[in-house]
């Protein structure tokens, strides 16, 4: 894998209620598209985008829930080895905000301790239908020591910023971890994936 | 959260998220079938699950409360002309039994010991009721009331089994090497016993498997993971060494060519003999055929290999018993050698975060291809038409959901509908949390497979797997030890003699040099080997998946899943590779990374070329 052309690889995982726009955020960022309609995305596992930050190539692997959030049945393995979580709600939907504590419980249980979590209020293009005040969300995020950002996948507001901010934060943490030599959290690739193994003899 | 209703039409409805069901789900979704996948539990993987420490305590508690059968509701209003109902069993009351929990560490941190009324080290954990119940709660919302019948037996005799006293004097000095504490980054002096309170507090660092298996690196599961690209959802560690218990000692089994050369316990003559034997094993010879039907042990004896090598070859490499026929023993040996060196020095892999990840990975694949997932949701009954086909099911909310095929974990099916070998066979399981490795090593963290031959006549062969914290299954500073055997008696009767021989418990006070057991659990689980996919008193389009079987590998479940898939979709490909997400953006990149280096470092002849073997050929 030495020929891979990047300095960092991070796994970013999206969670949040169905219909808050998780897939749209990913598609907007990775493909520049806003998919109209609510069609389920069949066969798409994760998306990849490589960005350059201060001269370093950062490969972002962005995972979507594959619809398992619909009946609250996300596999634990989905959270494993995620470097960052994007917890998304819909600012026009009070219910999606009220479910956040439930999502946080799941994060606490299954994600690793050092995961970076960012709270995202999506659909700010629908400002006239807003049900969750910005201040309320900011207070909530602060109480949970999360970053907070409001986005519109439709208008492409703050989407780029969301992922780039995350990437910066992850680089900062990775450098810090290297300094601390603190290796409690496994980075992706520390264990070995089989397909990786199938071509190399590693010990 | 008010859950929305499920869609009411599917091609395949699957109940239970064990390994076989999950593979069927992935395979069906992958080729475009509309799949609904349900589980009555709030967690994935049924009896294949891994739990955090607190999650396991909750699981134990749930198995103490025998839920009363739900009042049978009348669903006849949902029946259409000519349909009949088959009720499924409400809860799984038979697959798990004889749970016994022991806590041998102090309740609180040592600093607070003075306040504790219980004497340290002998605290017995009654029902684990003080565990964090928030962890897994939803399943209990269905259960009606508690049954006071407590299955945990009190262990009153602290004396343990009489056998170990005789044995303790025979312990050779090699077993009493200094403790591995230094390797753990803790000095001998500071090595403090981890309290029960700490296990609970750090409970989420554990991923404790209900079943204990390993992945043969050329077994059908690994082949399927690679073929389907499901492997991308998990990471794996090599099992780093194979150990065996012999004459009261734990010894390392040399298996790769490098191991044999490096081995200090083998003489030069033995090394040469072992090399020659293993190399000659790869091909079938007339000499071997002459032994067909006769015990493998006899064949080994006649090779004049000596006691050491005989033991290694029989128990640790072929992993068979003394009366196994030669052809079976040789086949196992060849399989072992084929698997050796594909990824590491042993034939085995273990998934990081535990075996419970594997079914979930297949569920994820199914979801990616449109499978609908709903935990805490079950099926109450099947609607059967005149042609004895299941047309629809009624779910736990009373909704009618039509389907063309129904796949179900056998524990959901009432006994009278199942055709099973009687009496049902069981597996005995023990799960230990210990404070040190069974064989300290100076090369850091080890993942060990340990073969334990019968400790006395009438006792079963025990498979033991010792996991270190780098597998993300236990708290740093602890080891997670799984013991499995075919049941002779209860799990406690079968396995506690092995535990007291190999570990330090309050019953073995004089054996402080051994790893201490901090906490342990015994239970029996029904052996899934006896349940067939078809041939039950059920509609023809209903297929049964057994629970976990007692074999070390996963071939049984994978074979079942493949068989069911072929019944449902005889024309379709089984788990073709899912498109690689990288290909979407990077056109022309090959599916598997190409890299230098052969895959084989076992050195036993076969070169490491990547063969696309058909998984079903494993027998």
UniProtKB/TrEMBL annotation, chain A:
Catalytic reaction(s) noted: GTP + H2O = GDP + phosphate + H(+)
UniProt topology in membrane: Lipid-anchor
Enzyme class, first EC level, given as a word: hydrolase
Cofactor: Mg(2+)
Chief place where the protein resides: membrane
Gene Ontology MF terms: G protein activity; GTP binding; metal ion binding
Any Gene Ontology CC annotation: Golgi apparatus
UniProt-annotated location(s): Autolysosome membrane; Cytoplasmic vesicle, Autophagosome membrane; Golgi apparatus, cis-Golgi network membrane; Golgi apparatus, trans-Golgi network membrane
GO term, biological process aspect, one: Rab protein signal transduction
Protein's job: The small GTPases Rab are key regulators of intracellular membrane trafficking, from the formation of transport vesicles to their fusion with membranes. Rabs cycle between an inactive GDP-bound form and an active GTP-bound form that is able to recruit to membranes different sets of downstream effectors directly responsible for vesicle formation, movement, tethering and fusion. RAB30 is required for maintaining the structural integrity of the Golgi apparatus, possibly by mediating interactions with cytoplasmic scaffolding proteins.
Protein name in UniProt: Ras-related protein Rab-30
Gene source species: Seriola dumerili (Greater amberjack)
UniProtKB/TrEMBL annotation, chain B:
The keyword Repeat is annotated on this UniProt entry: no
InterPro entries: FAD/NAD-bd_sf, GDP_dissociation_inhibitor, Rab_escort, RAE1_2_domI_C
UniProt entry keywords in alphabetical sequence: Cytoplasm, GTPase activation
Region annotated Disordered, chain positions: 106-189, 576-619
Biased composition (Acidic residues): 106-115, 123-133
Listed Pfam families: GDI, RAE1_2_domI_C
GO CC annotation: cytosol; nucleus; Rab-protein geranylgeranyltransferase complex
Main localization (coarse): cytoplasm
GO biological processes: intracellular protein transport; small GTPase-mediated signal transduction; vesicle-mediated transport
UniProt superkingdom: Eukaryota
RAE1/2 domain residues: 427-549
Keyword Cytoplasm: yes
Entry's localization field: Cytoplasm, Cytosol
Basic and acidic residues compositional bias, start-end: 146-156, 606-619
An example Gene Ontology molecular-function term: GDP-dissociation inhibitor activity
PANTHER family (UniProt xref): CHM, RAB ESCORT PROTEIN 1, RAB GDP-DISSOCIATION INHIBITOR
Function: Substrate-binding subunit (component A) of the Rab geranylgeranyltransferase (GGTase) complex. Binds unprenylated Rab proteins and presents the substrate peptide to the catalytic component B. The component A is thought to be regenerated by transferring its prenylated Rab back to the donor membrane.
Protein family (similarity comment): Belongs to the Rab GDI family.
This protein's name: Rab proteins geranylgeranyltransferase component A
Gene source species: Echeneis naucrates
């Amino acid at each position: 894998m030495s020929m891979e052309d990047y300095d960092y690889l991070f796994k970013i995982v999206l969670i949040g209620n169905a219909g808050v726009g998780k897939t749209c955020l990913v598609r907007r960022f990775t493909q520049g598209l806003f998919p109209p309609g609510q069609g389920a995305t069949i066969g798409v596992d994760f998306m990849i985008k490589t960005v350059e930050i201060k001269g370093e190539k950062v490969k972002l692997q962005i995972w979507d829930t594959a619809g398992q959030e619909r009946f609250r049945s996300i596999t634990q393995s989905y959270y494993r080895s995620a470097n960052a979580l994007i917890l998304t709600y819909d600012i026009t939907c009070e219910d999606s905000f009220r479910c956040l504590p439930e999502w946080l419980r799941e994060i606490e249980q299954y994600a690793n301790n050092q995961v970076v979590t960012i709270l995202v209020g999506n659909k700010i293009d629908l400002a006239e239908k807003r049900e969750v005040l910005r201040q309320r969300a900011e207070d909530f995020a602060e109480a949970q020591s999360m970053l907070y950002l409001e986005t519109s996948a439709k208008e492409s507001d703050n989407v780029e910023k969301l992922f780039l901010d995350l990437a910066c934060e992850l680089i900062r943490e990775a450098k810090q971890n290297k300094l601390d030599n603190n290796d409690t959290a496994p980075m992706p690739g520390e264990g070995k994936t089989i397909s990786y193994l199938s071509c190399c003899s590693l010990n | 959260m008010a859950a929305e209703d499920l869609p009411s039409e599917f091609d395949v409805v699957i109940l239970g998220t064990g390994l076989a069901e999950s593979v069927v789900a992935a395979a069906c979704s992958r080729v475009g079938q509309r799949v609904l996948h349900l589980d009555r539990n709030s967690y994935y993987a049924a009896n294949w699950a891994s739990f955090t420490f607190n999650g396991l305590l909750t699981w134990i508690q749930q198995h103490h409360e025998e839920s009363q059968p739900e009042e049978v509701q009348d669903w006849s209003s949902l029946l259409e002309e000519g349909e009949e109902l088959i009720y499924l069993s409400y809860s799984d009351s038979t697959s798990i039994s004889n749970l016994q929990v022991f806590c041998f560490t102090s309740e609180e941190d040592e600093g607070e010991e003075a306040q504790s009324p219980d004497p340290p080290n002998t605290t017995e954990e009654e029902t684990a009721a003080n565990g964090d119940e928030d962890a897994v709660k939803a399943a209990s919302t269905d259960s009606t009331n508690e049954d006071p019948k407590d299955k945990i037996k009190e262990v009153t005799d602290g004396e343990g089994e009489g056998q170990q006293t005789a044995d303790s004097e025979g312990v050779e000095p090699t077993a009493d090497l200094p403790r591995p504490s230094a390797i753990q980054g803790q000095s001998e002096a500071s090595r403090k016993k981890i309290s029960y309170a700490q296990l609970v507090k750090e409970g989420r660092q554990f991923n404790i498997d209900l079943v204990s298996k390993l992945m043969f690196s050329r077994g059908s599961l690994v082949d399927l993971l690679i073929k389907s690209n499901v492997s991308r959802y998990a990471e794996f560690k090599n099992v780093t060494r194979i150990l065996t218990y012999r004459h009261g000692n734990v010894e390392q089994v040399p298996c790769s060519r490098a191991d044999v050369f490096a081995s200090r316990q083998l003489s030069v003559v033995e090394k040469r003999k072992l090399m020659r034997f293993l190399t000659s094993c790869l091909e079938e010879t007339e000499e071997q055929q002459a032994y067909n039907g006769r015990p493998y042990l006899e064949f080994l004896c006649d090779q004049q290999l000596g006691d050491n090598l005989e033991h290694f070859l029989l128990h640790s490499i072929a992993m068979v018993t003394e009366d196994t026929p030669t052809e079976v023993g040789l086949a196992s040996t060849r399989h072992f050698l084929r698997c050796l060196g594909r990824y590491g020095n042993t034939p085995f892999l273990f998934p990081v975060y535990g075996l419970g990840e594997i079914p979930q990975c297949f569920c994820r694949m199914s979801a990616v291809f449109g499978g609908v997932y709903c935990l805490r949701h079950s099926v109450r009954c099947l609607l059967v038409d005149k042609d004895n086909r299941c047309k629809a099911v009624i779910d736990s909310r009373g909704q009618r959901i039509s389907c063309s095929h129904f796949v179900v974990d056998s524990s959901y099916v009432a006994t009278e509908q199942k055709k099973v070998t009687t009496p049902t066979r069981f597996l005995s399981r023990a799960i230990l949390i210990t404070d040190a490795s069974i064989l300290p090593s100076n090369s850091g963290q080890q993942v060990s497979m340990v073969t334990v031959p019968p400790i006395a006549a009438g006792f079963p062969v025990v498979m033991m797997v010792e996991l270190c914290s780098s597998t993300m299954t236990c708290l740093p500073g602890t080891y997670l030890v799984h013991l499995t055997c075919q049941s002779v008696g209860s799990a406690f009767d079968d396995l506690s003699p092995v535990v007291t021989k190999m570990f330090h418990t309050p019953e073995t006070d004089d054996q402080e040099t051994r790893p201490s057991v901090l906490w342990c659990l015994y239970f029996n689980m029904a052996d899934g080997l006896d349940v067939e996919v078809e041939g039950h008193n059920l509609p023809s389009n209903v297929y049964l998946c057994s629970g976990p079987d007692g074999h070390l590998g996963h071939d049984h479940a994978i074979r079942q899943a493949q068989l069911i898939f072929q019944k449902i979709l005889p024309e379709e490909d089984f788990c073709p590779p899912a498109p690689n997400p990288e290909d979407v953006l990077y056109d022309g990149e090959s599916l598997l990374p190409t890299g230098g280096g052969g895959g084989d470092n076992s050195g036993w002849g076969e070169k490491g070329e990547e063969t696309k073997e058909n998984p079903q050929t494993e027998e």
